[in-house]
Amino acid sequence: MRKTLILSLALLAAAPVIAQQASKTNAPVMGGDSTGSATHSTLPADGEGLYRGVCQSCHMPDGKGGTGAGTIPALAGNPRLTSSAYVILMVGQGRGGMPGFADLMTPAQIGEVARYVCTHFGNRCQGDASPETVKRVLASISHRPA
How far apart are CA 54 and CA 17, in angstroms? Predict the structure, then answer.
């Protein structure tokens, strides 16, 4: 329930950016399915657009995170962001109060936003973020024993 609420709030905050991106590409605006929910086809395809449309509502435009009802980790200069696999894992599966976006984004989109985070805000991650790598990283955690 909490994860759904957080994801819903992130999408609500992202709606203006998604609409702006869609108007530039003649893509459909939010609601690629019969429930009116956002789908991977209604999100931007590039890392910066994905960050602006989905991530910056919590992590802020400058990647510095924030505090309020909870603490949102800074992405800017974050010492944990040294591996693209770690960023892929966080974006795809989430952790703590952050929802995972593997059900909303394609592996290519997760790779794009991971690549963006890994090359911006003073970060320099090692490893690639290709769709194949995203699939491999996310599959590796789904096979771990509970």
Answer: 9
The amino acid at 70? G
Region 66-71 average pLDDT = 85
Calculate what percentage of the chain has a pLDDT beyond 70: 68
Q: Which residues pair with 4 in a beta bridge?
A: none
Report the Cα–Cα distance between both ends of the chain, in Å, rounded: 21
Lowest mean pLDDT among 95-99, 106-110, 139-143: 139-143
More confident residue, 35 or 98: 98
Domain boundaries 2-29+38-142, CATH class: mainly alpha
> What is the secondary structure of the chain as a DSSP string?
-HHHHHHHHHHHHHHHHHHHHHHHHTPPPS--STT----GGGS-SSHHHHIIIIIHHHH-TTS--EESSSEEPP-TT-TTTTBHHHHHHHHHHEETTEEP-TTTS-HHHHHHHHHHHHHSTT---BS---HHHHHHHHHHHHTS--
Measured distance CA(56)–CA(67) in Å, rounded = 14
pLDDT of res. 108: 96
